[in-house]
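ARCHIVE CARD
Drawer: 12
Card no.: 0347
Subject: one protein chain, sequence and derived structure
Cross-reference: see card 0346
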Amino acid sequence: MHSIPSPLRTMRLLPVIVAGTVIALTASCGGDEGREYTSNVDSENFATMTTRNVESLVSDSGITRYRIVAPLWLVYDEAREPRWRFPEGLRLERFDDFFTREATVECDSATYFKNKQLWRLDGHVSVVNTIGERFLTQQLYWDQRQQTVYSDSFIHIERADRVMEGYGFTSNQQMTRFKVNNVSAILPANQFRPGLTRTDSAAVNPPGAPRDSVSSNPEMS
């Protein structure tokens, strides 16, 4: 099991977008392998710590629950707005009791704003929650303080019974109760096929489907 760089020992890393509980990242052993420290530089533009090839399994109550992978981790702790950056991508996997992967979060890059306790995921953001629903977007935020996940970008959601698309999205941290704003398409899952354009999907949108917003749970409407 790989160790996690020391700053992660005191912070909670990724949203438990897929978990239902926040991940407490705790290293099982120390060591500076893969880390580079910088001093006496422009703290706004140069990272005070650089860690390469971050990969770790994280346990909860003696059971391996998560795998975290990031090619590059940059820490700007002395900047006016302290932040962490993962410019080359970030991947989180959650496992069940039998070490079977049950949920994932992936993105092309990620930034964590420490003072705001805010995560921003950018690029090809893909989330699969614990009930198998898939979320695709170009940008996703997770606000730890408010315990919400949201996006102002186009979002594509694949559920067991239907596919939804729209602009603007809010959700709980587990991404099991959500609301899509400015809905552009809703169609039965058996009518969706990969590569279907937004125009095509709108054409098969069932008559009478809501166009302003749609929720996964009536209480969020």
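Annotation on reverse: The chain has one helix and 14 strands. The domain at 6-209 is CATH 2.60.450.10 (lipopolysaccharide transport protein A fold).
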